Amino acid sequence: MPKDLVFITVIGKDQKGIIARISNAVFMHNINIEDLNQKVMDGYFVMTMLADMTDSSASIGDIKKEFAEIEKQMDLNIQVQHENIFKSMHRV
Fold it and tell me: Are 47 and 20 in contact (CB under 8 A)?
């Protein structure tokens, strides 16, 4: 069965709780984290997450709306892109 994958990127000043807030939002929408990379570079938190929305009843719009609240509360930049859009933008 094909997966419904999305890329989630998070950038902002490093602070406690970023991974917890993002992963909890993903969990609450029954979205599975497939892969996660994060690091702190010169005081900035940078994370990329590949998540599978196959079992979720939420739309990408629903997820973006929830992440918009987290962005405001934590002063972050969060982007969500469907795998197809991501691949077409990064095709060589």
Answer: no
